[in-house]
Design brief:
heterodimer; A: mainly alpha; MetI-like fold; 2 domains; globular; B: alpha+beta; Rossmann fold; OB fold (Dihydrolipoamide Acetyltransferase, E2P); 6-stranded mixed β-sheet; 5-stranded antiparallel β-sheet; 8 helices
């Protein structure tokens, strides 16, 4: 059940105290073939090796926009320019202005977003919609995936294939049909229920495939054994399969949650009432034709990502699967 | 406890050839029946039909006198031990063993008592709070056994329970299973491809090949009195030597040996002669009237107290189990002898045993 730990030969190259986690593997990766002459020299060489430089550059590309958002949020201003450059700025000053650092740090954007704007309300809306989507999506996809994995019935192959095909079309394609169905036919426009239904059902194909793949790996003998012990199908599903599939359910649930949490287009079309907006829709109004409150926008964006980050942290231990270790030999 | 009766039972998947064409077998109450055969012979299918995990295509299957063809597994009152243990990985050993009782709404105190008793019997008392992932293979298999035991079922089914264990543990667990059966006397059906397990555990053994029942009997009956070449070649390690021989009417001969026999007049031209490796002895130690056999040593496998000597003459091969340490080199010619009464003869076409073949007085030599 032990995961292979990092006792690879690579590690032995780094004598003495070692950097931890990703840094270690980064350094280890970079210095794989470097001859060893003292630790300091080695690390220096690592830093200047082309692999390290490449990785650093790639990381920078990813992080740079985020740094801008953070700086904007904490700048206390609404303007996109963090530094006021004089007319005749030197090249050095211009380059310095590329570094996203506000002139002064300040929490006013956050407090304003939370108190002066209906941001908390939108956050609440998003939370209700996303959690309900996760719940509904998971319960539908778990049962469907279990059936697809374990039972043989007419239309099984085709059903799975249809699910896959539905993923091949861009989501925007469904915009008009969904509007017609949800708003005009069902009359669920401008309501949480409409959004929840649409989100959980559009997330379904992916969730079903994901869970089915995991259910397939659970040994069938476990269920046969339970069957012989007198358990019903439902009991097997709830007391054996679902607990065993926790890692997959966690990942799938996270996916469903984020689908609903981050979705913008459908929500912006379905929701008319400002008090029912979800966060992504609300954020848009900070930056529009009539307003350019970039500071609020940035602060709001950071606040929006906090629940998702928390969720990731909470589910982290499930994301490392391996719960079924020890069920059967091998 | 219960008897199990197969009456013309067959199993077929889709339109393919039947996995089990037609099986008539009766397993007595309290008996330890071993189903043995090469892989793919249908023995696991037979077991799973008893469990109710496979449907019966045709025929009738009785457990304890009741027709169970359409009875779901949970109503058959049987417990099964799987090859890969099939423990519930998210439950502790205690919960694993208690699961079946909880499902059947056994009172809590009763569950506690029965699980503790079974754990004591199997030496699992210290492991009750562990999860299967923290146990060794042997411990897992004992938990699986315990889980079956606490239910106190009518029938135990074992599906190759020892094949995932290493050799030493296997011997130990084999003894454990045998002891449990003697203690509780529950009807047991045990599937294995290992004839040593079959010989040591079974009250009776049923040998299957391609879904057909080859022979049923006690281990010694099968070993000493095989009905056909399959059973002869399957039981015993190393298995019985089977050599094609020519029927002269008054005896048989082949490149290795020549043997005078009575009662061959009405038998086919080509026969198969069977001779167990342990029946071959060095010619020097044998009574003078025993037929001799001359062959070239191909390979010697030394097992310490004895040696398995692979012999060849022409295209024919034999294995002899010889005692002692006398030096033998591949390539040298060896003279051996055997008791003519220990020879088995089979019809080369139908593979069936030819009985009532006698050795004439003063039998002869090559």
């Amino acid at each position: 059940m032990n995961l292979p730990n990092d006792s690879s030969p690579r590690r032995s190259l780094l004598a003495g105290e070692q950097p931890r986690g990703p840094v270690r593997s980064l350094v280890a990766f970079a210095c794989k073939q470097a001859p060893t002459t003292g630790r300091a020299g080695r690390i220096l060489r690592d830093i200047f090796s082309w692999r390290f430089a490449l990785l650093l550059f790639a990381s920078l590309i990813v992080i740079y926009p985020l740094l801008w958002v953070v700086s904007l949020a904490f700048s206390g201003q609404q303007s996109l320019t963090l530094v006021q450059l004089p007319e005749d700025a030197s090249l050095g000053q211009q380059l310095l202005a590329l570094i996203p650092l506000p002139e002064q740090w300040n929490l006013s954007n956050f407090t304003a977003v939370l108190t002066e704007q209906p941001f908390l309300r939108w956050l609440g809306n998003s939370l209700v919609v996303a959690l309900s989507t996760t719940l509904l999506g998971l319960s539908l996809s778990c049962s469907a995936a279990y059936a697809f994995s374990r039972f043989r019935f007419a239309g099984r192959e085709r059903g799975l294939m249809l699910f896959l095909i539905s993923q091949m079309f861009p989501a925007v394609l469904m915009l008009i049909p969904l509007y017609v169905i949800v708003v005009q036919w069902l009359g669920l426009g401008n309501s949480w229920l409409g959004l929840i239904l649409v989100y959980s059902i559009t997330a379904l194909p992916f969730c079903v495939w994901m869970l089915k793949g995991y259910f397939d790996t659970l040994p069938y003998e476990i269920e046969e054994s339970a069957l012989l012990e007198g358990a019903s199908r439902w009991m097997i599903f709830t007391r054996i399969i679902l607990p065993l599939a926790r890692p997959a359910i966690a990942v799938t649930g996270l996916f469903a949650f984020m689908t609903a949490w981050n979705e913008f287009i459908l929500a912006s079309i379905f929701m008319d009432d400002e008090s029912l907006y979800t966060v992504p829709v609300g954020l848009r109004f900070f930056v529009s034709d009539y307003a350019s409150e970039w500071g609020f926008f940035a602060a709001g964006s950071i606040l929006v990502s906090i629940p998702v980050m928390l969720l990731f942290l909470a589910l982290q231990r499930y994301l490392v699967s391996g719960l079924s270790a020890g069920a059967v030999k091998g | 406890m219960a008897s199990i009766e197969f009456k013309g039972v067959s199993k077929r998947y889709g339109d393919s050839l039947p996995t089990v064409p037609e099986l008539d077998l009766s397993i007595r109450d309290g008996e330890f029946m071993v189903l043995v055969g090469p892989s793919g012979c249908g023995k696991s299918t037979v077991l799973r039909m008893i469990a109710g995990l496979e449907s019966v295509t045709a025929g009738e299957l009785y457990i304890g006198g009741h027709l169970v063809n359409d009875l779901p597994p949970k109503d058959r009152d049987i417990a099964m031990v799987f090859q890969n243990y099939a423990l519930y990985p998210h439950m502790t050993v205690f919960e694993n063993m208690a699961f079946g009782l909880r499902v059947r709404h056994t009172p809590k105190l009763g569950i506690e008592r029965r699980v503790r008793e079974a754990a004591d019997t199997l030496g699992l008392s210290d492991l009750l709070q562990r999860k299967p992932g923290q146990l060794s293979g042997g411990q897992c298999q004992r938990v699986a056994l315990g889980r079956a035991m606490v239910r106190e079922p009518q029938v135990f089914l074992f599906d190759e329970p020892l094949s995932n264990l290493d050799a030493e543990l296997r011997v130990q667990m084999r003894a454990n299973i045998g002891r449990l059966h003697r203690e509780f006397g529950t009807t047991s059906v045990y599937v294995t491809h290992d004839q040593v397990e079959a010989m040591t555990l079974g009250s009776r053994i049923a040998i299957l090949n391609q879904g057909q029942l080859m022979q049923v009997g006690t281990p010694l009956e099968l070993y000493g009195d095989p009905d056909n070449t399959f059973v002869a070649g399957f039981m015993g390690s190393p298995p019985m030597n089977l050599v094609p021989v020519h029927n002269t009417g008054s005896g048989v001969h082949c490149a290795m040996l020549e043997l005078a026999l009575d009662g061959l007049q009405n038998q086919p031209q080509t026969l198969t002669l069977g001779l167990r490796p342990e029946q071959l002895v060095p010619a020097a130690d044998a009574p003078g009237h025993w037929p001799r056999l001359r062959a070239v040593v191909e390979l010697v496998e030394s097992l310490g107290a004895e040696r398995l000597v692979h012999l060849r003459a022409g295209d024919e091969r034999m294995v002899a189990r010889l005692p002692g340490m006398q030096l033998l080199t591949p390539g040298e010619t060896l003279a051996l002898a055997f008791d003519p009464a220990a020879v088995y003869l089979f019809d080369a076409g139908s593979q069936q045993r030819i009985r009532h073949v006698g050795v004439p007085a003063g039998a002869v030599v090559c």
